[in-house]
Design goal:
Blueprint: E1 8-10, E2 13-15, E3 22-27, E4 30-39, H1 43-60, H2 65-94, H3 98-118, E5 125-128, E6 134-142, E7 145-149, H4 157-168, E8 172-176, H5 182-194, E9 202-204, H6 209-218, E10 224-228, H7 231-243, E11 247-251, E12 256-260, H8 266-278, E13 288-294, H9 295-311, H10 330-346, E14 349-352, E15 356-357, E16 367-368, E17 371-374, E18 391-397, H11 400-408, E19 415-419, H12 423-432, E20 437-440, H13 469-473, E21 474-482
Parallel strand pairs: 7-8, 7-10, 8-9, 10-11, 12-13, 12-19, 13-18, 17-18, 19-20
Antiparallel strand pairs: 1-2, 3-4, 5-6, 6-21, 14-17, 15-16
Helix pairs in contact: 1-6, 2-3, 2-5, 3-4, 8-9
Length: 496
């Protein structure tokens, strides 16, 4: 059976990679299902896309921000109309279940609505001048051509977090989607094109990080890079961008802890643990990969968690009854298998799961069982390093202060959760947990588009998606208007 062939979007035209190479996009639940064939781009393709974006920038930056926002609103309406089809496309190429891919598309819909409102709120600041007959203010300006490098686990939501604020601020974009999930980015950008986005304002270059991504980092006409991915790759991106004097936003990994105190609503905490650990098959930067249990409830919680994890239905996410889909590719399966072996050697006790599924209905996919380890000590690698799969570690503690210390004693700082009925401890946790996100009586996953998203330590470099994105995609300009009709020297003529 033939499959669709897709090209790069450059200057409003769909063009094959200059070198002619392509990448097959396969359904991780069924490798016999070919989603499409996409370009394997190199530096020449990136340069063409950047030049198209640079050319489009001259006119796009002059379009009033409220008019730019109206395009986002029209794109939102198209995403609403196409939601079910786009969700099914995403499940086929990424694997997560339909309920989650519908949520992924919905997040892009929400982001469009939120950011469109910012088209009338690109506020600056006016302030009194220290001199007479002089007006002082500051205004936001677009950055220019921006490069966006996005991951495979949220292949429409995360591109929308970057594209929409970049566009409303007046920038033009070159986006490189993950090679595992390019179609969802194509679908998102198609909605923008159909909504009236001018040619060249957004350009798609599909290809590997080592070729297309590296060329984007090195291109002299790209003013800023927004990257979401692993901390190891993000460190390289940050250093390479700094060497080329580009501003860079990094949103990277996590080793997120859910703390359950003795006084918690255990049924609620169990629901949160299952969703946080095994939603998206554990393939979220915010996934619950550590569950910290106070000793008074540890045995009961552990027993119930394992029982429920064993009951989760694994399979093709297009089946509405499936709760856990495949991992995205064979490399992710290998990582999960490797960390299971590491945990065993460290002395952790595997209570369920721990194996890839390769028989019968799973033979053509990349499936891994929901896996729970108990007896995990805070210094074990399984408790400190990101697995990015359906593998969760249970760590027991005695006191609240000890739980906070364990949660903080890692390199990452993205998301945290605390289950308790004690309001004093809840607010102490909000203050003391070293993370960009803290949930009280809710799981570590579930961010909303209008709040800041990002983390500290090895999770990020201080920039935020959501609330805060415009701070990255704009630059400040100070403006002085002197209407005194004479030379006035600040800090000199007004000095006593």
């Amino acid at each position: 059976m033939s499959h669709p062939v897709y090209h790069n979007l450059i200057g409003g035209q769909w063009l094959p990679a200059a070198g002619g190479s392509t990448i097959l996009n396969l359904n991780p639940a069924d490798h016999t299902d070919v989603i499409g064939e996409f370009p394997a781009s190199h530096a020449e393709d990136v340069d063409r896309a950047v030049q198209a974006a640079r050319h489009a920038y001259a006119a796009w930056r002059l379009v009033p921000a409220p008019r730019r926002a109206e395009i986002l609103l029209r794109a939102r309406d198209l995403l609403v109309q196409r939601k079910e089809r786009l969700a099914k496309d995403m499940t086929r190429e990424m694997g997560k279940v339909l309920a989650e891919t519908r949520g992924d598309v919905q997040e892009a819909i929400d982001e469009a609505l939120y950011v469109a409102g910012e088209g009338r709120r690109l506020f600056g600041v006016t302030t009194p001048s220290e001199l007479q007959n002089k007006f002082a203010m500051s205004v936001r300006m677009p950055v220019g051509v921006v490069g966006l490098i996005t991951p495979w686990n949220f292949p429409m939501a995360i591109p929308s977090w970057k594209l929409f604020p970049a566009l409303v601020a007046g920038n033009t974009c070159v986006i490189k989607p993950a090679t595992d999930t390019p179609l969802s980015t194509y679908n998102l950008v198609q909605a923008l094109v159909d909504a009236g986005l001018p040619p060249g304002v957004v350009n798609i270059v599909c290809g590997s990080g080592s070729h297309a991504g590296a060329a984007l980092l090195d291109h002299p006409d790209v003013r800023a890079i927004s990257f979401t991915g692993s901390s190891a790759v993000g460190s390289h991106v940050g250093q390479r961008a700094a060497a080329n004097f580009k501003q860079v936003s990094l949103e990277m990994g996590g080793k997120n802890a859910q703390i359950v105190l003795d006084d918690a609503n255990l049924d609620l905490a169990l629901d949160g643990a299952l969703w946080g650990a095994f939603g998206t098959t554990g393939q979220r930067c915010t996934a619950t990969s550590r569950i910290l249990l106070q000793r008074g409830i540890a045995a009961e919680f552990t027993q119930k968690l394992v029982a429920r994890a064993r009951e989760l239905k694994i399979g093709n996410g297009l089946d509405e009854s499936v709760q856990v889909g495949p991992q995205v590719n064979a490399a992710q399966i290998e990582t999960s298998e490797r960390y299971v072996e590491i945990a065993r050697k460290e002395g952790a006790k595997m209570l369920c799961g721990g194996h890839a599924l390769r028989h019968d209905a799973y033979a053509h996919g990349t499936f891994f069982e929901p896996t729970v380890f108990a007896g995990v000590e805070p210094q074990m690698r399984i408790a400190r390093e990101e697995v990015f799969g359906p593998v969760v570690s249970l760590i027991e503690f005695d006191t609240f202060d000890q739980a906070i210390a364990i949660a903080n004693d890692i390199d990452y700082g993205l998301s945290t959760a605390l289950y308790t009925r004690d309001v004093n401890r809840a607010f102490a946790a909000i203050r003391d947990l070293e993370a960009g996100i803290t949930y009280i009586n809710a799981p570590t996953i579930g961010a909303e588009v209008h709040l800041p998203f990002g983390g500290v330590k090895h999770t990020g470099n201080g920039h935020r998606e959501g609330l805060g994105a415009l701070d990255f995609f704009t630059t400040w300009k100070a403006v002085y208007v002197d209407y005194s009709d004479k030379l006035q020297r600040a800090q000199i003529d007004n000095a006593e």
